[in-house]
Amino acid sequence: MPANSKIRSKNSKGANIITMGLLPLSYKRISGFFFFLLLCLSFSVPHAIAQEPKKGDEFAKLSRRLIQDGFNQEKINTLFSSDQVFFTPSGVSSFFIHSESSLDYDQFIAPKPIANAREYMKTHGESLGLAEKTYGVDKTIITAILLVETRLGGYLGKRTVINTLSTMAALTDEDLKERIWNSIPDKKKPKREKFEKKVKRRSQWGYLELKALIKYTTREQIAPESIKGSYAGAMGIPQFMPSNALSLAKDGNNDGKVDLFSHADAISSVANYLKHHGWKPGIPRQRQHEVLFRYNHSNYYVDTLLKISDKLKEG
């Protein structure tokens, strides 16, 4: 829960530097040349912008693999020919430098976020109450997850999910893998051996999640290139990965669609996810921790959720 390059023309200062090198020229000739240069730039810059490099064929092998695995050829070719779907090394490189320990989950226990969570529980009380009754999951836990994941829907991520997952899945290609390696800043590069192992593992994972995304968006009649999410490909208010969206997300408002950007659906989906992994009413604290760990494999994360839940119960 994906960067276009920017084209920059020389400014007038840059043009002056060019003309200053022409010392033998008279001032009049310099001025005339300078005017001619500006005139050329005024026509060439828009033309350069219009002639941006065309999208590469980085996903050609990936497309063939998907078709071989049974996806509709016309659909796949149309999808990957879209200008909105492209290889994103700068985004995916975050996968190899991210550190869970650097995240500050304590910020969510501060008075302001807790107050926002209480207000959220009032606003969406009906959906939370129904989810608690249907799935047996405490509404304070559901709210805590949504608070930490997306600030209750306030921050959903800006990367195009299909670009993230497609880029990850395509890293079985040695040349593309090298492009990811080169996009990681030198100061943040992991050891090469560690990088190689993680790429192998993550490319397999990315392919499975990509297939799930295509299936989910086909089922729900959503354009896959329209979905934005985290650097890891998590999407919606609960930050579900596509495989979880496909199998565990629920239609909370009974409108016939499973939309993770809908609060009612997000609430029901989180509750169903936790129930699926063993949450039951009245389970002991240690068992709660074990189930919540399935949502995010971080003890720090889980401890924060439980602290938020405790605070919300106080109110």
Describe this structure as you would to a colleague:
The chain is about 60% helix and about 0% strand. The protein is mainly α and about 325 residues long. It folds into two domains: about 10-50; about 55-315, no CATH class. Strands 1-2 form a two-stranded antiparallel ribbon. Helix 9 (about 160-170) packs across helix 11. The two termini are about 30 Å apart. About 35% of the residues are buried.
The sequence of SSEs as H and E is: HHHHHHHHEHHHEHHHH
The number of domains is 2
The major β-sheet equals: 2 strands, antiparallel
Number of strands: 2
Which features does this protein show?
disordered N terminus, mainly alpha, two-stranded antiparallel ribbon, 2 domains
